[in-house]
Amino acid sequence: MKSIRTTASLLCFAGLGLPVLWAAEIELEVEIPKPVFIGTKVATKLPNLEPPGYKTPKIMVPEGTTNVALEKAVTSSDPEPIIGDLFLINDDDKDPNDGSYVELGPGIQWVQIDLESPHDIYAIALWHYHKNARAYQDVIIEVSDDPEFSKDVKQVYNNDHDNSAGRGAGKDKAYVESNLGRLIETKGAKGRYVRFYTNGNTANEMNHYVEAAIYGSPAK
User: Fold this and answer.
1) What spatial distance separates the first Cα and last Cα of the chain, rounded to whole Å?
2) Among 58, 70, 67, which residue's Cα sits nearest to residue 4?
3) 33 with 161: CB under 8 angstroms?
4) How far apart are CA 191 and CA 144, in angstroms?
5) Please, are residues 1 and 29 in contact by the beta-carbon 8 Å criterion?
């Protein structure tokens, strides 16, 4: 992550009118992999599919924010993936080539990253399989201090429009996968664990993960 711009809040010090640096922020810059599209299949039948033209949003985060998910422990509802190993999900390799992605079985599946301690989470970047155009269904991201996600759950993304995953209906849009992935602002959601859900995709019924990055810092 590179710092490409900083902003700061200014306060008057001791009533003297002197500017004081209070809360420096930087614009989060996420490295984007090269496009590697194969084929022409495009998702067209999802009722909540966003229109073409997605651009990675600009998100401001506190200075010192890093990818706190890198190489942390990953667990899953499918502990023995069909393809790949769970550590590939947060190894900082965003290319969807053979040996770089994980395939889980059909139906609703999740993967979970343990940050080892509570963190303030400002943004999450997610890449499913993006070697050809497809949309993943019921993409849901939750944050909690409970490893079972049965209490104190903060939902930061949900494009399950009809509650078919049983985590509540969401208002976020389904989207066609590309090398841009999806960058999501999470506004300082606090928690130790981050869980990602999917429910198959428009190309087949399997669930895939290429990379998940979680940008944050230890909770204050």
Assistant:
1) 22
2) 58
3) no
4) 5
5) yes
Q: Could you report the per-residue pLDDT of 147-199, keeping only the tens digit for each?
A: 999 999 999 999 999 999 999 999 999 999 999 999 999 999 999 999 999 99
E strand or H helix that includes residue 187:
strand 182-198
Three-state SS letters, 113-168: EEEEEEEEEEEEEEECCCCCCCEECCCEEEEECCCCCCCCCEEEEECCCCCCCCCC
- 3 state DSSP class of 81: coil
Exposure class string for 151-163: b at 16+ Cβ within 10 A, else e: eebbbbbbbbbee
For residue 33 the two structure tokens come to 């992999």
Q: Which residues pair with 195 in a beta bridge?
A: 112, 142
Strand partners, 136: 201
The strands making up 6-7's β-sheet, listed across from edge to edge, are 6-7, 25-27, 60-62
- Other C-beta atoms closer than 10 Å to the C-beta of 176 total 21
With CA atoms as reference, report the closest residue to 138 among 119, 156, 162, 111. Answer: 162
- If you search the block for the tokens 């809360």, which residue do you land on? 23
* CA 29 to chain CA centroid, nearest Å: 14
- Cα–Cα dist 110/99, whole Å: 20
The values of phi and psi at residue 151, to 5°, are -155, 160
- Tens digit of each residue's pLDDT (9 = 90 or more) over 9-24: 444 444 445 454 456 9
Could you tell me the two tokens for 43?
């998702």
Distance CA 117, CA 99 (A): 30
